[in-house]
Amino acid sequence: MSLRWKIILIVVVTALAAWAVYPPAKKIQLGLDLQGGVQLVLRVNTGDALKLETQTDMEQLRQSLASKAIKVTDLTLTGGTSFQVTGVPPAQDSQFRQVADDLSATFDRVPDINGNYTFTMKPNIVKNLREQTVEQARQTIERRVNELGVTEPSIALQGSAGDQIMVQLPGVTDVARAKEVIQSTGMLELSLVDGGPASSRKQLLQATNGVVPEEDQVVPGLADTSQPAAGAAATVYYLVKKVPVITGRDLRDARPTLDENAQPAVSFTLSGEGSQKFGTATGQNIGRNLAIILDGRVQSAPRIDGRITGDGRITGSFTQEEAQNLALVLKSGALPASLTYLEEQTIGPSLGADSIRDGILASLVGFAFVVVFMLGYYHLAGINAIVALVLNLLILLGFMAYIGATMTLPGIAGFVLTMGMGVDSNVLIFERIKEEIDAQHGVRASLNAGFNRVFWTLLDTHVASLISAAFLFQFGTGPIRGFATTLTFGLLANLFTATFVSRTMFEAMLSGRRQVATLSI
Amino acid sequence: MHIFKNPQFDFVRWRWHALVLSWIVILAGLFTIWTRGIPLGVEFSGGTVVIAQFDAAPPSIGQVRAALDRIHAGMGDQAVVQRYGTPALREIMIRVPQVGPSRADAPAMTAGAAPAAPPVVKAGTPAAPAATGLSTTADDVQRALVQANLGRFSVVGTQIVGPIVGRQLTRKGTLAMVLSLIGLLLYIAFRFRFSFAVGAVIATIHDLLVTFAFLAFFHVDLSLNVIAAILTMSGYSTNDTIVIFDRVREDARLLRNLPVKDVMNRAVNQTLNRTVITAGTALLSVIALYLFGGDVLRGFAFTMIVGIITGTYSSVFIAGTIVTFWRGRGAQPRVQAAAAGGAAVAPSVRASRSKPQRKVRAS
C-alpha cells in the first residue's frame, strides 16, 4: 500500500469515528451509575404458575368426572406439579381412564393397588411451562415499564437458572412507585358471591356446617368502605365461586376515573368474548352479588341490578395514584407468577454527575502527564505517539457510539487503562527503534525493524488482555461489562493506531528526503 | 536520551531475596485475612447501603449510630458509617448487613403504603408479596435519621442486595478468574514454551495473593469495582511478563549457547527502559485516578496502584525465576530456540511485506 493510500485510510477512519461520536451528548449512552436511575433484579417464582396449571387441570378433571357420574373419593394436590385421585371405583375404572386420557399429553399417570392414581406433570412440559412463564413475566413487566413512560428501559433475562429478570430504569426517581407497578400481580377476577360478608370464617360457614362447598372458596376482603368510622379496615370474608365469571384476560382496556362520589376508581372495558360471558352471567344472576377480587382480596361486592355487557367499574378506597397504578397494571395484563426482589439499586442523578465529572477530570490529568512525558523524552517522535493516542481514544468512542454500548463508571476507568496500554505500545516501538539506531543500522532500517519486530510483541500482549476481557464480559453485569467492552475496543483500536498510524506518520515525515541521518526520538 | 544507557544489572542474583520478600508479604496477607477477614462489598455479602446528603453539616458518626440503635437495638454497632465523597458534598454512607425485615417485630414497623397481603385462601392465586420486603432496612435507616432530628437530608443513592445474588456473583467471579488463568496458560504455552506459561501463571497468582494481602492490610472493601481492578491488573501483569518473555525468546534464538540465567538477565536489562517508562506512566495515571477520581473509583485506583507495582515486580523476579529454575536444571542449562510460534511465523509474514528485512545483528 503506497503512502498516499495509507494516509487516506487513516483520514477516512478518523472521519468515520468523529461522525459516529458527534454529537457526544446524544450518541454516547450513559449507564445507570452515571445517569442515575433504578436497577432491580427480580426472580420469577415459576412454581406458582406450575401449581396453577396443575390445579386448573385437576379441577377440569373433577368436572369431567362429575359430568360422567364417575364417583371418586377425592382429588387432591400432592405437590407443585402433581395431584392424586383417590377411591376410583373398580367398576368404573376403564371409564375413568378414558376420561383421564385427556390429560395424557401433560401428565404421567401412575396407578397403585388401592385404586388410586397419581398424576405427575411431565418434565418437558414443566420445563416449557417454566420458560413460558418467565417470558410472559418479562413481557408483562416490559409493558408496565413502558406505561410508566421510562425512556430507554432495559428488561433482560439473566441468571443461570433462567428465571431472573434485570430491570434497568434510567432517570427514574420514584423507586417505590416503580416497584409497586412492576410487582403487583394484577390478577383480577369477578366471581359470583355465595355467602358473606361475614366477620370471621366460622360465621361465614355457619350456613354450610363449617364446610366449604366444593365449587366455592373463601376469600378475604376489606370491610364496607362506606363506613370508614370503624377505624382500621376490618377484614371480612366472602364465599365465592371458584370459577370466575371473567378474569383480567377478558379485559381490553382499563382507565382511572371517578365514581359517583367523585372518589378515584378504575373503569374497564371487556373484550368481545368477555362481554358475552359477562352479559350471560349477569343476566342469569340478577339480584345476586358479584365480587370483584384483586390479587386474592375482595375489593367490593356490588349487587347485580341488571344485565351488564361491555364496561364495568372497580371502586374502593383508592387514592388517585393507586387508581392510576391499578389501571396501568390491569391494562398490561396479570403476571403469570409472583416475583421476588433479589437486588435493588438506586443512584440519585447527582451522584452520577459527580462521578462523570471526577472520572473525566482524572482522565485529563492522567493524559496531561503522558503528553508532557512523551514530548520531553521522545522529542518530535513524541508527537507521533500523542496523535496515535488521541486517535485511539477517538476510534474507541466511535466504536462505542456506533454499537450503542453503554458507558459506565468502570468504563471510564477502562479508558484510563486503554491510554496506559497505548502508551506502552508506543514506548515498546520507540525503544526498539532507538536500540536499532544505536546499533548503527540507519534510520529507515531502524524504523522498519522497530515496527516489524514489536508487532509480534504487541500481538501477544493484546491477545492475552483480550482473553481477560472476554471472561470479564461473560462474568459481569452492566458496569463490569461496560469495562470489558471499553477494554476490548480500546485494545483493537490500539493495535491499529500504534502500528499502522504511527508508522505511516513516520513514513510521511521521511517521505520527501532521500538520505536521513538522524531521527528526533 | 536514555533513562538507562546499556544497563547491566544482575537481576537474577536477587531472586532469592525476592522470593523471601514475596512469601513474607503473602503469608502476612493470608494471616490478616484469616484473622480480620477482607471486608466484602455489598454486592457479595448482601446488605443495604444508603447514601444520604445533608443540607447542612452532616452529623457525626456516633450520632448516626445512636440514631440507628434507637430503631433497632444493635443496628448501630453492626452498621458501617462513614463520610463519603469530598467534604463539600456533605454525604454520609451507611451500610447495614441486613436486607428486608430485620426482626420478628418488623411487620409492625414496616412503613409503606401497601399492606402486607394476608395468607391467600383462594386456591390458584399466586400469593401477592409484601410490597417493600427488600427495602425495609433502607426505610428503617431513613426513618432513624429523620427521627433523630439530625438535619434535613436527601437520599442520593441506595444499594440493596439479597444474599442469593451475592453468592451468585462470588461464584461467577471465581469461575471467571480460573478460566482466565487457564486460557492464559494455554496461549503462552502455545506461543512460547510450557515453562514460560507456568512462570507467567504463577506470577499472576502471586500478584493476586499480594493484592488481596494489601486489600486486607488497608481494609479496602471488595466491591465490584475492585474486582474489575484485580482482573485488569492481572492483565497488565501478564502484559509485562510477555514483553520480557518475548525478548528472552528472541535472544535465545540468537545466543544459543548462553546459560539461562544470562539470557534472562540480558532480556530484563534490554527491556528495562520500557518497563520503567510504562510502569511509571501507568502508575501516574492511576495515582491521578486515586486523587481526583472520586470515592466510587477509589477502591479501584488503590488496587491498581498495588497491582502495577507487584505486576512489574513479579514479571522480573517471579516469572523469570520460575523459568530459570525450570530450564536451569539438568546437565545442559541452555535455552534452546523457543517454540515455533515466534520464529517460524514471523519470516513468512515478513516476506509478504514489500520491504526486504535484514537481520538484527548482535552488538
In short:
Chain A is of the alpha+beta class.
Q: Largest interface, by Cβ-Cβ below 8 angstroms: which chains and how many residues each? A: A-B, 105 and 98 residues
Fold-level CATH name of the largest domain in chain A: Multidrug efflux transporter AcrB transmembrane fold
Taking pLDDT < 50 over at least 5 consecutive residues as the criterion, the unreliable ranges of chain A are: 225-232
Largest sheet of chain A: 6 strands, antiparallel
Helices of chain B, by number, come to 14
- Tally of distinct domains of chain A: 3
Mean pLDDT over the residues of chain B: 73
Question: What helical percentage do the residues of chain B reach?
Answer: 55-70%
Summarize the amount of helix of chain A as a percent range: 40-55%
Number of helices, counting only DSSP H or I runs of 4 residues or more of chain A: 14
From the N-terminal CA to the C-terminal CA of chain A, the straight-line distance is 25 Å
Poorly predicted runs of chain B are 102-132, 329-363
The global form of chain A is elongated
Number of strands of chain A: 19
The named CATH superfamily of the largest domain in chain B: Multidrug efflux transporter AcrB transmembrane domain
At the fourth level of CATH, the homologous superfamily of the largest domain in chain A is Multidrug efflux transporter AcrB transmembrane domain
* Residue fraction in strands of chain B: 5-15%
Radius of gyration of chain A: 35 Å
The end-to-end span of chain B amounts to: 19 Å
Question: Any overview of this molecule?
Answer:
The complex is a heterodimer of chains A (521) and B (363). In chain A, helix 4 crosses helix 6. Chain A is an alpha+beta fold. Chain A folds into three domains: 3-34 and 348-510, Multidrug efflux transporter AcrB transmembrane fold (Up-down Bundle), CATH 1.20.1640; 46-124, Hypothetical Protein Ta0175, Chain: A, domain 2 (Alpha-Beta Complex); 185-318, Gyrase A, domain 2 (2-Layer Sandwich), CATH 3.30.1360. Chain A has helices spanning 3-21, 24-27, 32-35, 46-67, 93-100, 123-148, 175-183, 201-204, 272-284, 320-332, 349-403, 409-438, 443-475, 478-510, and strands spanning 29-30, 37-44, 74-77, 82-86, 107-111, 117-121, 154-158, 164-170, 188-198, 216-222, 235-241, 246-247, 251-258, 264-270, 290-294, 297-300, 311-314, 339-347, 406-407. In chain A, strands 9, 10, 11, 12, 15 and 16 form a six-stranded antiparallel β-sheet that branches. A four-stranded antiparallel β-sheet of chain A has the order 7-8-2-18. Chain A starts with a helix and ends in an 11-residue tail after the last helix. By secondary structure, chain B is α+β, with helices and mostly antiparallel strands. Chain B folds into two domains: 12-39 and 165-342, Up-down Bundle (Multidrug efflux transporter AcrB transmembrane fold); 47-111 and 133-161, 2-Layer Sandwich (Alpha-Beta Plaits), CATH 3.30.70. Chain B has helices spanning 15-35, 42-45, 61-71, 75-78, 106-109, 136-147, 163-191, 194-217, 224-254, 260-270, 272-292, 298-328, 340-343, 345-352; strands at residues 47-54, 80-84, 91-96, 153-161. A four-stranded antiparallel β-sheet of chain B has the order 2-3-1-4. In chain B, helix 1 (15-35) crosses helix 8, helix 8 packs antiparallel against helix 9 (224-254) and helix 10 (260-270) packs antiparallel against helix 12 (298-328). The longest helix of chain B is centred in the middle third of the chain and has 31 residues, at 224-254. At the A-B interface, helix 4, helix 7, strand 10, strand 18 and helix 11 of A face strand 4, helix 7, helix 9, helix 11 and helix 14 of B.
